[in-house]
Recover the amino acids of this structure.
């Protein structure tokens, strides 16, 4: 399971989704209170701003950030909770990338449409998606799929959601 939430709902969502691992995608000055159910060794924090183009004074997501996030998610298949400040851009991009990595045979467009149906506010960070696409060898399909679903509805923060892989003939991701 890959769950997504804003920072304001970390504890609640760790319990709700049974998360045992936590991926935090925040700026360096952000205070994170790790939920008690998640051990310190199962928490990775990556520091960068939610930007898709270079901007003076800001740290953009880079190849190293994406590689660390994907490696962290691949190291253990327990439920992972991904968050950023609002649960709209960095975290939805990372969740999409992790889902693509965990299910390499899945169609990128189908996964993006599933993401949109679960989160009408999701606006995956384009740079994270582009870097993940390259890292996973998806040849631009992840980028095209996220462009196809477009920008999500405006919101101060997104509602929590989870992508759950199901073992079935269709191997669909469903909401929890």
């Amino acid at each position: 399971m890959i769950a997504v939430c804003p920072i304001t709902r970390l504890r609640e969502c760790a319990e709700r989704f049974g998360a045992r691992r936590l991926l935090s995608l925040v700026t360096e000055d952000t205070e994170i209170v790790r939920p008690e159910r998640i051990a310190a060794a199962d928490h990775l924090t990556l520091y960068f701003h939610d930007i898709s183009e270079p901007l003076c004074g800001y740290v953009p997501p880079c190849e190293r950030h994406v590689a660390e996030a994907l490696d962290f998610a691949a190291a253990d298949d327990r439920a992972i909770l991904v968050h950023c400040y609002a649960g709209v851009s960095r975290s939805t991009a990372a969740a999409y990338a992790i889902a693509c990595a965990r299910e390499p045979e899945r169609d990128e467009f189908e996964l993006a449409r599933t993401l949109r149906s679960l989160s009408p506010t999701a606006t995956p960070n384009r740079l994270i998606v582009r870097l993940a696409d390259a890292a996973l060898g998806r040849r631009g399909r992840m980028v095209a799929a996220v462009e196809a679903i477009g920008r999500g509805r405006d919101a101060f923060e997104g509602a929590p959601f989870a992508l759950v892989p199901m073992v079935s003939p269709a191997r669909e991701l469903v909401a929890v």
About this structure: The chain has a mean pLDDT of 93. The chain has one domain: 2-174. The chain is about 35% helix and 15% strand. The longest strand covers residues 21-26.
